Amino acid sequence: MSEPIVIENLTKYYNKFLALDELNLRVPAGEDIGLLGPNGAGKSTTLKILCGLIRPSSGKAYIDGIDITVDPEEALTRIGAIIETPEFYSYLTPEDTLNYFGKLRGMKSENLRKRIKEVIGLVKLDKWARVKIEKFSRGMKQRLGLAQALLHDPPILILDEPSLGLDPRGVVEFREIIKDAGKEKTVFFASHQLVEVTQICNQVAIINDGKLLTYDSIKELKKKYKSLEQAYLKLTGGSIE
Amino acid sequence: MSELDKLGIVIRYEFLKHIRRKRLYVILGIALVVEAAVLILIPALRDGYPGSVMVMAAMLTAGPSLAAIGAVFFAGDAIAGEFEGKTGFLLFTNPIKKMTLWSGKYIASLAAVGLMIIFSYIIIAISLGAIYGEVPLEIFESFGVCMLFAAAVLSVTFLFSAISKGAMGATVMTLVFVWVISGIVQSVLGFTGNPYWFLISAGGDSIAMVYGGMEMFMEGFGGMTGGMGAMLEGYKVPTVGETCWGMVIYLVGGLALSMLISRRRQLS
After folding, report:
1. Residue B227 pLDDT > 70
2. Taking CB atoms and an 8 Å cutoff, what residues of chain A touch B86?
3. Strand order of the sheet with strand A17-27?
4. For A236, phi and psi rounded to 5 degrees?
5. Which residues of B are less than 8 Å from A96 in CB distance?
6. Helix (H, G, I), strand (E, B) or coil at A17
7. Most buried one in A117, A161, A184, A193, CB count within 10 A?
8. In whole angstroms, what is the distance from residue A57 CA to residue A14 CA?
């Protein structure tokens, strides 16, 4: 699929509040796209619609050509996602949790066991694999969130502030994991951290008040506005000059 | 992978949740304490156990009835908890139909409550065997009615869980509905000589009523005289069959409505 994520005239109202206003966006295969915008811009709403967590008021969202509102189960097989700070069942261990989600995704026991070991190692939770999640810090839950997103090796990663709550070392490790995953996968990634976005993504979409302000390569934006920070501030209504 | 396979997985992990939570053991403990209290207090406060095994069997249904009410604590957070605790942000991004998910949760909750009910009936059977040297066959009917009552309470709880923002709200609303509102309406309808088979609290009463009617129960304790006895004269006590139909309405209606509502619910 040349454009695994396609958003067409996506509009979302929360009662009378307009969160998304006819948003259009196409994410090409294998690209790492950052979704930027101030608080309340509509980033999380966009990602939640793509993950089938909420329904749009109008417009369409496609994952690998599948309309997420028509066949969410099929569309979700292609996605690995972290939305907001992940919360897990506190009575389960990371191993139990990944087993549960892996089985729901139809992974076979032997392959699943092997994969669980791999992703737990990747997010450095080896020592905590059999400890109940009720004892986990926010950062540890975030790590486990990334492990579950990568578990089934999906072609598309949808990440909403994935490094929130991580310590500086964790942020660096996360960035490396996502960058590495991004070599083979399409990554659609919402963040407030411009530095992080610059280091992971090739292109960014900046939105505000539910509208797309720009969708361009970071290189081009730097040419036009000197820096990504300047581009962000000018486009979203402020300047540091 | 079929939805049936996924249903099996959800049941397995939801059941694991109930087994690992303290509330199962707390409710079971309370049910056993109630049965122990009945076994100790009746001979202590009167001259021995009632002459009829049926009366004593009816008295001991207090334990499993409480266990059935425990369904509320298992299911209160089944739907609301996924939204309130935000665990839904992970669970709902898995390729599974909501209907399969809620069905799995319902079956797992019923299995956990069923486990407690079976355990409390085993205690009843052992106690009756030890005291009277016999166990009435009606115990199986009582068990069946108790399971149906638990299933109905579970459905009502699912319905409140589907419409509530929080798990606590769903739990409290169900308890108020089943124990307070339904109980009061039953009393009013009963005293005024009207039928009340359709109330869920009447279903709860039937767990003991399978052993005999109100008269048998009162006779076992020396009969009822005075104002209370006169009041009960006008009661149109429903048959167990009638109350079972009432419970089926709550079971089917509550579950269907909870599924419809929760399918439409969004995690924003």
Report:
1. no
2. 84-85, 87
3. A17-27, A5-14, A58-63, A66-67
4. -95, 10
5. 13, 16
6. strand
7. A161
8. 9
